[in-house]
Automatic annotation (TrEMBL):
HAMAP family: UPF0301
Source taxon at top rank: Bacteria
Family to which this protein belongs: Belongs to the UPF0301 (AlgH) family.
Name used for this protein in its record: UPF0301 protein CUV01_04805
Organism the protein comes from: Paracoccus tegillarcae
Length: 191
């Protein structure tokens, strides 16, 4: 890192003036951030038309009575056919597990078929969500969007990641940062 703060493990909260409708009122967990860009997963956009068991079936993975029912979410507009499992890292012993990336000490993101098979047979991580696609930014792009008042950064919590009350997450994320959502305006100013 050179001139910017590493936002890995932080959240982005879309401000009311967010110009991209795909991110309106969204809360995004930053999974990786460097001079080369950033990658994140939207935390509050469920895909109710996609059931986890159906997705397993499409991948040729047999669900059984031990299958963990996890929520499927829109992770972002980049590579929407690619899946990422966001999960607790509590049951992960190998920090070098293939396809797994740690996000801080308690979270990890895994993109391999193995974790889906584990979830299908009840041996996966204790808490998990599946995101289809991701949000990506090129070098300096996220920083520019932040300077243009598109995003507020903050700390995350398990409720923002694993709760299924997706409608409440945007307001909850703002309140957790000490911001009253009703006082926000879409207009930005410069002094």
């Amino acid at each position: 890192m050179t001139d910017h703060t590493d936002l890995t493990g932080k959240i982005l909260i879309a401000m009311p003036g967010m110009l991209d409708p795909r991110f309106e009122r969204s809360v995004v967990l930053i999974c990786a951030h460097s001079d080369e860009g950033a990658m994140g997963l939207v935390l509050n956009r469920p895909l109710p038309e996609i059931e986890f068991n159906d997705l397993l079936g499409q991948l040729g993975i047999d669900a059984d009575d031990q299958t963990q029912q996890i929520e499927v979410r829109f992770g972002g507009p980049v590579e929407p056919g690619r899946g990422f499992v966001l999960h607790h890292a509590d049951r992960i012993e190998d920090d070098e597990a293939e396809g797994m990336m740690r996000i801080g000490t308690d979270l990890a993101m895994t993109s391999t078929r193995d974790i889906l098979e584990d979830l299908a047979h009840g041996s996966g991580p204790g808490q998990a969500v599946l995101a289809l696609g991701y949000a990506g930014w090129g070098p300096g792009q996220l920083e520019d969007e932040m300077l243009a008042n598109g995003w507020l950064t903050g700390e995350t919590g398990e409720d923002l990641i694993f709760s299924t009350d997706n409608e409440a997450k945007w307001g909850a994320a703002l309140r957790a940062q000490g911001v009253d959502p009703s006082l926000l305006s879409a207009a930005a100013g410069r002094a």
